[in-house]
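request received
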Amino acid sequence: LEIYLNGLTGVLPPYSVDPAKLQEAARDLLDAGPYWYVAGSAGSGETDRANLAAFARHRIVPRMLRETTERDLTTELFGRTYPAPLALAPIGVQSIVHPHGELATARAAAALGLPAILSTAASHTLEEVAASASGPRWYQLYWPHDDEVTLSLLERARKNGYDTLVVTLDTWTLAWRPNDLDRAYLPFLRGTGLAIPLSDPAFRARLARPVEEDLDAAIMTWAPMFNGRAHTWDQLPLLRENWDGPIVLKGILHPDDARRAADAGMDGIVVSNHGGRQVDGAVAALDALPGVVASVDLPVLFDSGIRTGADIVKALALGARAVLLGRPYIWGLALGGEDGVRHVVRSLLADLDLTLGLAGFSSPADLDPSVLEAP
Ligand code: FNR
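response:
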């Protein structure tokens, strides 16, 4: 209401409320390297485009003359109640677009009571991020091939109040990403510090010389430890035995993998293709969602292509319990730090609230596939 009344009375928001325009503004502001690192995707961009096209293919059939004045977006996830079915997706090295990076993102999310999922590849340590914001804390693990480093990361996360672990499975090595490769392979990343892994004491104990003396060697040690080799299902017990809270596997697209996750005692799944940044030609995440939802009795979260309130309604109608917002909040961060992230998320929540009500529904729980036009 506040956003709308401001608009009606001529008080313009400091940034556009249109996600496409925000991206254009960020493009004007950022250097090409960071801009394309965020905007780019794998291969020819086919899956990135397919993610968005899948949303355009699904359409809501609004219902009339229903009582939807009182709307309630609250959502239960893993035993906790959140104000909306939304979290901020884990996105690494955020200081490449704004010096406050993950600190700003965490503060913006905390002010709205939503989780900002902190990436293993963050540019601020998990201790710094925890100290800067009091909101719900979720930690995303890029799973190292060194159990002591893994256990050290989990212990640090636990000690700092991160209660939900999101294990990303689809990025055990970086995909073929022409936009990055054409730009001398991410030189701007060196300046960000990759604080979480490089600051970890168990990781530092593996280095011949301190990070401060030889950053290149530290990054080279980091690379094979986190990259180049996949883990396998039989290794999941290590995580299950060493994490008391909920564990959510991110990057599941096949119903059989979802069933294996449930069998392995996992608490949830994120259907995601990493925003089309890993397997180019992969199925659109939205098209994979119904099959995964039908195959397990776990909360299924969703990301890859969420841009508008209608997108969230569609993903929830197809069975997602909540969605993760990806690139759009990074454009807000680039433009205005904490304030920019808050602006993007509040605009999206306002759009969701209006779209839900105008479609004839008052809560996420009312949504099911019948809300959408039959394919
Ligand atoms: C990501 N994503 C990601 N995922 C993850 O688990 N750990 C990470 O560190 C990152 N880093 C990252 C950086 C950038 C620049 C982007 C764009 C994405 C993937 C992210 O969590 C999410 O799956 C996608 O962003 C969803 O796609 P859309 O909605 O952004 O298109």
